[in-house]
């Protein structure tokens, strides 16, 4: 039995330091327990059970105590979890990005079944790409790269960036209307993802909420990107900052706080590599440079890992994180290699698709392009009309990221939450990417762009160096985020000195002013033309077929029209024109005649569709009604088109 001591008041204290009165001990004994807490109320041998005394009376003062908080049931717990999710920062950021994307791209979703942003040429091509990838996955995935266009060319799906990452969306719906609707939805979502990705990256690196919002908006709605509204593969860049943010979070690293091992999360590292691989699958137009950036980052990280292990005898990132980077890097490289195979096939079959350094010079912008806005800018478009007239190819040479962004980034060099060395590294990155964006305009690119073009695999396939401005914009956005975050932090410090300690309405408005200015400078006047209506013949005539007239711009809507049944069509528009399609356009200039009919039969073409509303002023306006009996073909009027059956 535990030893105890007693005081004069009848209170005993055991060696555990617990005080007990004689009433407590008596109550415990009556309950069949000794002072050590061991049971003493065993059942007697005769089977009789000792009668238990009634429990001690409850303390009457407990009536004045607050009622215990009720334990929520399963519905209550679910409601609380849902509420926490809805007010979480990332949820609000997603919703804000979506709402802003709808407003900033308006009227894209006003008539989403009938219009396309900027024009109906390249967007029609990209709408067809998503439709074809979904159709191929649903019917015959092995023939994904052997598309129904450019008949009879093989590997025709790889004639331009494929947007393969959007293939799951292509599984939903069929026909041109569904393809146009799908394109418009993905167009808006691409803007939302870019805003969210840049916001998350700035937050992970250590920026405040307002600063991160400025980074997200300025990265997505920079004026120069308004000229790229017809290029979904360029607009779809949100995976770049999002992947970088996930990788940084997985490694427990931020620009403001450095490396924090306790914040490492292997799952985020895997997710970052998966998002990076998905971004690459959208196209090499911007994905190739992203791949090289990741490769350099991975090599530097590996060098640090081995150096720290050898010098200090420890692994700075940990074995699991090292394995995650190794597996993720191999996944990313495998996706890139598999996607590169069809492009190598195309380069082998079509030498005319290869670009020269002279081609790069045609699209290389001068330094004035960094201060010139495209015509689609609501604020600067009209004011910069004269400056655009001096640019040889202004759609790819108006590279203004925003005067507000320039000012905020310049302020961020002197007043920022980032360390000075980080600001200097960002400034160096801005200058380097600007020089590369000038292509051959910067001292002929001899020591800048030309070596990359000659020696880095894949760089000779990039036609427009001005798209390097994407990285310039991201770095400027991070510099701006540092400045705005420092300003907001200073406002909070001033607020604590006030009585009461809260910011004045004017200070609150001042913190939001940079965000408002960036939004205003990103407003656009992008046209949304109505897509040409699909001819009835495209829904009934079998392939292989040729649609006349045929040209780069006219063939892209034909590709969209073919999404009803995906017949094989000779028509096609892409980054280059195959020699055979050039021959078809040249030979069929006098169609229908014996030479063109024989040539088309040799290719395997069975039907020719001539669109009456597009042949005004062309030779076909006369020949479409010429006698065809001696040619061995038939003619039939289908809607507003004439169908010749060979």
UniProtKB/TrEMBL annotation:
Q: Does the keyword Nucleotidyltransferase apply?
A: no
Keyword annotations: Membrane, Transmembrane, Transmembrane helix
Is Membrane included in the keywords of this UniProt record?
Answer: yes
Chain intervals for the UniProt region annotation (Disordered):
1-78
- Spell out where the chain crosses the membrane: 90-109, 180-201, 221-245, 266-284, 290-308, 320-344, 399-417, 424-443, 468-488
The Basic and acidic residues compositionally biased stretches are: 15-25, 32-43
Q: What is this protein called?
A: 4-amino-4-deoxy-L-arabinose transferase
